[in-house]
Amino acid sequence: MSFGPTAIQGANAGVPGEIDYRLARRHLINEYKRGRLALHEVCDAHPELLRNARECSEPSSLRCPICEETDLVLVTYVFGPRLPASGRCITDRRELKAFARRAGDFACYIVEVCIDCSWNHLARAFVLRPARSA
After folding, report:
1. Average pLDDT for residues 115-132, to the nearest whole number?
2. Is 134 within a domain?
3. Is residue 19 part of a domain?
4. pLDDT in tens, 20-63
5. Residue 79, SS3?
6. How many domains does the chain have?
7. Would you list the DSSP string of 19-66?
8. Structural domain contains residue 107
9. pLDDT recorded at residue 96
10. 45 compared with 91, residue with greater pLDDT
């Protein structure tokens, strides 16, 4: 799977879309609670993702669906022109707004993470396009 802006298209070609992964999330949680998935299969966050969750995340009011002990945090990554292939982890909303003013299309991915049990799931993906003058 590509993480670039062209990977996220709306119903109309060339129109940016937003992908919400709530149904996939619910299915995965249900499979775990039914015993069809082991804990190590759903709580498998990469160490770099956990580091970003501790250092560069935004708090969430959602409780972790696996350990049910900790609130999730949201980690945002941006991929696009003049960025490394691994993307850029966004540290705050001002930084994301700065990307909206830059030339080019940027793909944004928001991942929810539990720092305690390592649960992680892609929550949303969308294209961040610069404001165009009319």
Report:
1. 87
2. no
3. yes
4. 999 999 999 999 999 999 999 999 999 999 999 999 999 999 99
5. strand
6. 1
7. EE-HHHHHHHHHHHHTTSS-HHHH----HHHHHHHHHS-EEEEEEPTT
8. yes
9. 86
10. 45
> Which structural domain, as residue segments, surrounds residue 104?
5-128
In a domain, 133, yes or no: no
| Tokens matching residue 122 | 């892609």
Which of 10-14, 86-90, 124-128 bottoms out in mean pLDDT, i.e. has the lowest? Answer: 10-14
CB under 8 Å to 124, separation ≥6 — which residues?
18, 19, 20, 21, 108, 109, 110
Write out the two tokens for 57. 């995340």
Element (H, E) at 78: strand 71-79
Between residues 18 and 59, the one the model is more confident about: 59
Residue 20, amino acid: D
Q: Which phi and psi angles does 15 have, rounded to 5°?
A: -95, 125
Determine the Cα–Cα distance for residues 27 and 7; give it in Å rounded to an integer: 23
